[in-house]
Amino acid sequence: MVGVWAEAQRQQQRQQEAQARYLRDQDRDRRAYQRELARSQREQKAAYREQREAEARRRTRELDARVEVLQGLLAAGCRAPAFRASALTRVERVEPFAPGPLAQPVPMPDPGRYEAQGGGWTAG
């Protein structure tokens, strides 16, 4: 009887140890997953940051090139001779007005031709 009781105790002890081992393994796996997830997120953030920095460098180079072009344009404009409004004026030769056939007035219509004729439909 004592042997059966002792065997039951050992069996219960083994089950408790197995349960504790299972819980430790689960906890270890969960921590490993969280570490891997955190590492992955750090890598993603680093890649995103590197991409943004590369984009910023590219745009800075483009802006620097554009500023250089504009500075060259400004320098070339300053070296050009002074602008005078008189340079835009030019003599224009205008021919005298020649109306041609429009110089003859068109005869006005005769109002008598447009009067109402008698015998039509009238009110009254």
Q: Using the alpha-carbon principal axes, give the shape.
A: elongated
Number of helical segments with 4 or more residues: 1
Helix content: 55-70%
Radius of gyration: 52 Å
Largest sheet: none
Mean pLDDT comes to 90
How would you sum up this structure, described in words?
The protein has 124 residues and is an all-alpha fold. It has one helix at 2-79.
What's the short version?
Helices cover 63% and strands 0% of the residues. It contains 1 helix and no strands.
SSE blueprint and pairings:
Elements: H1 2-79
List the keywords:
mainly alpha; 0% strand; elongated
